[in-house]
Amino acid sequence: MEIGQVVGEKAVSVQITVLRGHNLKGRTESFLSFVRAELNGVVLGDSPKVDAVVDEAVDYNFTCSFECSDAAHNLDDLAHKPVILTVTEILPKEKKQKEEKTIVLGQAVVDLLPLLHGQSRFTASTVLYPAPGSPGETAALDGSKPVLDVSVSVPKPLLSATQLSESNLLKVTVETAYSVPDVWNQAAAPASGYAAALQVPLTAEKEQILMFSNGMLKMGGEREPVPRPKKWPQDAMLASGAQHIPGTNIEEQSVDMEDGDMTTAEDKEFRVEAEINRKRVSWDTERRCFLDAGGAAWLTRRIVESRLWPIEIMKVAQTGAAKGAKAGKEKGEDETLSFHGVAYVDLAPLLYPGATCVRGAYKLYPFYESELMLKTKRNYSVLRESMRPPVTQGKARVSSVGSCKAAPSKIFEKGGKDTKESPRKISVSQAGPQGKVAPDENVIEVEPQINTEGQMYADSKSYIVIEIALDKPLVPKRPPEELAKRVMELIPPRPPLPRRPAGAERAVQEFQAQVVSVAAQVLDQYQQLFGAAFEPSAWLTDPNTQEQRKTHLLGELNYSGKYFAFKEQLKYSVVRIVREKMLRTEAFTDVEQLQAFLSQLYVFLVDEMHKALNKTLSVDDLENQPQPQLECSQLKHFAREAQLNQDYQLATKYYQEQLARDRNDPSHWFDYGCFYMLRGDYQKAEQCFHQAVSMNQAHLSSLLMCGILAEMDGRYEDAETFFEGATCVNPSSVVAWTLFGVFYQAQDNSIQAEMAFLEACKQQRAGLALNPVDDGDTQTELDTQAENMMPEEEAEEDSADDSIEGEDVESSIKRCQSGAGVKEVEGSTLAVEPKPTRTASLTSPSKPCTIYMETVEFLLQSNALQMAQRALAQELLCPEGGLSSSYHLALAQLHTLRGEYGSAETSLSAALRDSYENPDVWALWGHLHFLRGESRDAQKCYERTLDFVADASDTHPIYLRLGSIYLKEGQFEKAKATYLRACKSSPSCLTWLGLGIACYRLGEMTEAEDALTEANTLNNSNAEVWGYLALVCLQMGRKLEAEQSYKYTLKLDLQNEPLLQEINEMQKHVGFGNPCF
């Protein structure tokens, strides 16, 4: 579609009606005035002369029109040229005066942009800005602004629905150029102007030069005010206020959110100084361009071909225009085109999904055509083209630089020859190797000299602030609703399953239900016989009467057969209780056992009957059911501990028990999926993550893992849906955006990857701005938090080791049970998560954590090793990253999880060179030695780790493995102290077991029994715990308990042969403990 082509390819009449004016001020109380309407330098008409009275409305009812067509007043003109309404007062004639004298009261502008948005009629109340010297200039101080009511209409919309959806509106705003060369001076003669220009496509065949030539040189001393209004690209405004576009302002924006070249810390400091003290040239002008479907597509292709877009700037001697026109063309251009510079604006962000704006500060460079060709694939200057006289006209075009009004008429047709040089528009097919040689040769010919004046921009560190915006994104972004629907299609949401009782619990509930049913029938029978007794006035308290009624009721039930029916009704539920609850399926051979069982059954049934009747007949609240002894957080801790010891069967048990507690918690499914990721069973892992998403469609971690596994399986479309859905679920997630970028990078989609990485950096900076942490104050802040949260624990940790060694085990158990020194997690009294550490400032004191290292941390915790390796590769390429201590530590963790111990050792050696006092590095090195069986070296690394002022990120495996080493070497006092610390920070069955073993070897039988009892409470299926309990009972002479402990030791199949042999020898020594004796 051509620029001016409208619906039906015919001219459309646009009517402008000035209805009335308000608060108009003239030189007298009553004055005569009229309104003149102009558009694009063409007078549309004058209204009749109307008498006006101050402070009263003036009805003009003036209508004029113009034709919107390709010949004149096309759609692009409507986009950036307003209708100018000038109100003029006719002064009274004096004696001997032949002609009327007039004075301009003010000007108003009407923006026609709503017509390009599909509206066929709109009204506006536009402010009438007073002209210089008019009466309204002084009257405006009282606060009542003059206003004109205007109506604009067309017989039908200028754009059809299809054209409206496919077209776009490009807005280019040139704000201010800062730190311009010091040689620029306002008092210099001759007077100079300052111009900026760029070329944009309008249609698929035509491009247009946008000229901004109303730059104003300002001295330094103060910052430009914000917000400040944007200006129209027209100069012919009598009223200064009319130059501002209604409803548009230049707003203040954080430098961190910009897209330009000046965003580093050094650039920020320079910009603060330059924007206050240095010279600047201000335009503050917005030029709007209407792009049809072809123009928008052509703009997209040009950005793909070359993401850098040149914006040229120059200084123009205003008195040299005429001279340049009379002199030779080449000579005139060289004399006028001074201080020729260029800024390269990266428009690739406009190809990000949903992106509509690029704004930033861009450095100014001296203009060289060779550099222009290399960066932008253009071989000519748009400023020179705008100043060159047209082929069809003999008059010079240099004057167009001084006026924005004439500049847009320079239009280039794609593939045609606008001048006698080579074609300026190079298509994708023409930009081959042969098409590039000729422009390069031309550049060498026309650039024999250095651009000395342009070099001043680089010497002064000049930069220009530019904004390029679109009404609609070039690449549409899928809305969150569509993404959510797509995720629902891939993983349908499942309603939470109702908790249904099974086994013994279900048998008891059925019995209680039958009791309630029988009770209701008995009450009905009682009411039929003695209905009056239920009335309060007839209530009988005589025991004899009550006994008589009871006998009568029982007789009636026996006579009617209901009593037998009640017994049959209860019989089936009682049988189920015997089988499911009492676990009796065989007949009794001993009468005494039968009687004892019947007594036990009778007591149980009576208790359950009372519970059922109390629920039915009593309104009192029942006592709360006892909570499970272990919380889900503890089960998760035990499962990870089992993973650490490579006891995957036990870890599976804990994860399944966690799911049995609450199958509707997506985090439980996520933990189970991460466990399968560690085992390499990706199919089951994906099933777990899908189950988590089906429970909660907004579970971020599971969505990311679904995307990772989908990419690993080659389902790239599904992976993109999951990653994009994760960014919509939590737009501030650094990990989600980073993984999105890594995914796009693997797909060779560099623009989308760049968008995702930039967004991740922005979100990380925003998060740091909300929670700033100074490296020097990190230690103090975390110490204060620890003192506020765990005062007792902090005091004890800072005490000497001998105080820990002498601590009583029983007091330690009581403290852990009471919650002292333990952090509460979701209502649990026992903490299982490692406490916050103070290692962050030690890991990389000179460099902040990058988005890739933050993502690597999540991936390593989730056991997504392939994606973690790719993220680490990005860390190497990141300017803020590189071979840091945190990088080497993460790489060593990756190698350790893969079992590549040699590579892990190499990475740890490099990490120690960068940060020798990092406790996490020493801890991982200790784990590496431990896994290799090098106990002595592991012990040294663990002891060094615990000696540091700062704790490692996870001390639990350190305590476990160091304690086990001490036990093997017979250092029981050190083992006891180590396990005491472990029991205090993160208690588990293994920590209490280790403490019990150490106490037993030291001869502290009471403390050993207490510790082993705690271990048995946390896990009653550990055969080693039962074995040491048997030893303790044998030592203390408790025969029955020793035999019972030994029986469970054998039943649970103890694999520790030395321990089993020690138990047998002790049994022979004391003479009891083995039922086989």
Automatic annotation (TrEMBL):
Query: Which keywords does UniProt give here?
Result: Repeat, TPR repeat
This protein's GO cellular component annotations are: extracellular exosome; motile cilium
Q: Where is this region: Disordered?
A: 413-439, 786-811, 825-844
- One Pfam annotation reads TPR_16
InterPro entries attached here? CFAP70, TPR-like_helical_dom_sf, TPR_rpt
Residue spans of biased composition, Acidic residues class: 790-810
Q: Which SUPFAM superfamilies does this one have?
A: TPR-like
Q: Where are the TPR repeats?
A: 666-699, 956-989
Q: Where is the composition biased (Basic and acidic residues)?
A: 413-424
GO terms of biological process kind: cilium assembly; cilium movement
Q: Which residues does UniProt assign to the signal peptide? A: none
Which SMART domains is this protein grouped with?
Answer: TPR
Protein name (Swiss-Prot/TrEMBL): Cilia- and flagella-associated protein 70
